[in-house]
Amino acid sequence: MYIKNLVPFLQSSAKFWELNGEDGAYPPQCPIDLPLSCRNHTTIDDTCCFEYPGGIFLQTQFWDYIPSRPGMDDEALEKQLGPLNSFTIHGLWPDNCGGGFDQFCDDSLAIDDVYYLLNSEQFNDENKKLEISGKELLKEMSRLWKSNTGDDESLWIHEYNKHGTCIKTIRPKCYSRWENEKMVVSSADYKKQSVYDYFRVAYNIYKRLNTTEILKEHGIVPSLTKSYTRQEIQSALNSGFNNQNVFFACDNHHALKEVWYYHLLQGSLLSEDFVPIGSLGNGNSKCPEKGIKFYPKGYVPSKNGKDGPKGPLYRGIIRLSGYEGFLIRNGHWMIKGTPANFKLIEAPFGGYYLMSRNGYCGLTKSSLLTCNKHIGNAGQFDYDPEKGYLGYSGSFEWGATVLPHGNVQSLVYLKDTAPKPYQFKLKFIKK
């Protein structure tokens, strides 16, 4: 359980971040004595003022250095990879207090546009005196929130649909009770406000965490010749994060590529009252103890700078640990017949798509595994290449309520707080 791991980090009630109170966007009317997320001892039902189950917030940053082609000038490099002296934004993710995370939580809130939304009059009216206008926010995102596919807006849409729709304290219903003269009162405007605030808060917390400067203060700078130890990088990052342990990851070239900062939250996301905590250890760092590179942007390592295969990775079947049988193409468990062929496909923004002849796989609201989805609502699965296990939202535990027999199929669920009588792992067996 995460809560047990949090105790050492929360002895002090002092807040690390100073709030931007003068120009705060729309401060919610919430009690000031609420506990930190994941620290409540009794149930708090007000989901507009208390974030649950996703009370652990990760602010994640990229160091993308490999260009799409060698020989690009600085202007072209910055357009593709962001500022040459700065990490870029990956996202703001709400992890669950008890482990794992939810994703794509509410299809009714999903978006397919950011450009026109932030350019709309709602976020560019000078009379509203917003903390940052939609156009200025869009400009900063275009500079600092970069996609490794070259399609920045697709990354923004993906991040909001996957993570932003899971943040309960910025649901449209919450804005409707916080009457504010700056806001246009309509359900459509509240939905847009949620999107704007997700990106605004993600941008704000990124600005407070200047990873490049933190590393530079300790002599860790981009270089073709220097290398660093894991301890050197760890100590530097921790010093810039209230001495809490920061998670960082490397690519297949042993080069620094990503940094994760963990926080708890007091009140609504709109309060931006984040409290740093130490890394909870999920994720594969892939960084060696020694010899970590921090390459300048624009450098192409050996092997053509490729960081692993793209597109369809594997074809195979899926079996269950400890039980006979296999998955069929709809995602159900059977013992009799022939196992379905599945594709495991690297997703553009992390994780993997799982696909059968029926379509892409994902989970329903009841955590049921099903394979009949289009790419737009496909789930993003986890994959452990060493053991072959498939997971979802950080969990590799699956279950079923009945055993299949004959031609009878059994439904497969991601394990949750209600344990299933039959529990197992799903193992992808490559062909």
Automatic annotation (TrEMBL):
Swiss-Prot/TrEMBL GO biological process terms: RNA catabolic process
CC annotations in GO: extracellular region; vacuolar lumen
Matches recorded under InterPro entries: Ribonuclease_T2_eukaryotic, RNase_T2-like, RNase_T2-like_sf, RNase_T2_His_AS_1, RNase_T2_His_AS_2, RNaseT2L_C
Pfam families cross-referenced by the UniProt entry: Ribonuclease_T2, RNaseT2L_C
Active-site residues, record numbering mapped to chain: H90, E159, H163
The UniProt record lists the keyword Hydrolase: yes
Keyword Lyase (UniProt): yes
RNase T2-like C-terminal domain residues: 322-418
Keywords: Cytoplasm, Disulfide bond, Endonuclease, Glycoprotein, Hydrolase, Lyase, Nuclease, Signal, Vacuole
Enzyme Commission no: 4.6.1.19
Cell compartment(s), UniProt: Cytoplasm; Vacuole lumen
GO molecular function, a single term: ribonuclease T2 activity
Stored SUPFAM superfamilies: Ribonuclease Rh-like
Protein task: Rnase which modulates cell survival under stress conditions. Released from the vacuole to the cytoplasm during stress to promote tRNA and rRNA cleavage and to activate separately a downstream pathway that promotes cell death. Involved in cell size, vacuolar morphology and growth at high temperatures and high salt concentration.
Family that this chain belongs to: Belongs to the RNase T2 family.
Protein name: Ribonuclease T2-like
Lineage, highest ranks first: Eukaryota, Fungi, Dikarya, Ascomycota, Saccharomycotina
